[in-house]
Amino acid sequence: MKVDNVGIQKLLAKTSGEDLVLALKLADESLRRHFFQNMSAASAKAVENALDELGPTPVSSVEAAQKRICTTAKELAEQGALQVLERKKAVRPEPGPA
After folding, report:
1. Which end of the chain, N or C, is less surrounded by CB atoms within 10 Å?
2. 1, 73 contact by CB (below 8 A)
3. How far is the C-alpha of 50 from the C-alpha of 42, rounded, in Å?
4. Each residue's pLDDT tens digit, 58-97
5. What are 24-69's pLDDT values in tens digits?
């Protein structure tokens, strides 16, 4: 699921800090950056610190937090408060006349 910046901000407002930290535990750096860029500097730093201090965490806990956030995102999308962006497929240009 891909969400624009405004949608991420709305999603962050509905997400607990604990779920956010757990969900980002195994997230790749680009996804973490997408969330951090939509938070205040202080909030982003607090989440980064919490991630650093989290230690070993069961994958099932991380997946459960990710699922809760996805459920919230789907609910916001159904309410029209969040727009899910479609991933564009690469389109090859048609060969032109020679």
Report:
1. C
2. yes
3. 12
4. 999 999 999 999 999 999 999 988 887 765 444 444 554 5
5. 999 999 999 999 999 999 999 999 999 999 989 999 999 999 999 9
Best CA proximity match to 52, nearest among 34, 70, 32, 68: 32
Matching residue, tokens 């990710």: 66
What is the rounded distance in angstroms from the CA atom of residue 26 to the CA atom of residue 45?
Answer: 17
Task: Show the tokens assigned to 91.
Answer: 């389109």
CA dihedral 4→11→44→67, nearest 10 degrees, is -100
Map tokens 């956030």 to a residue. Answer: 69
Instruction: Write the DSSP string, 4-21.
Output: -HHHHHHHHHTS-HHHHH
Say which DSSP state 79 is in: T
Count of residues making up the chain: 98
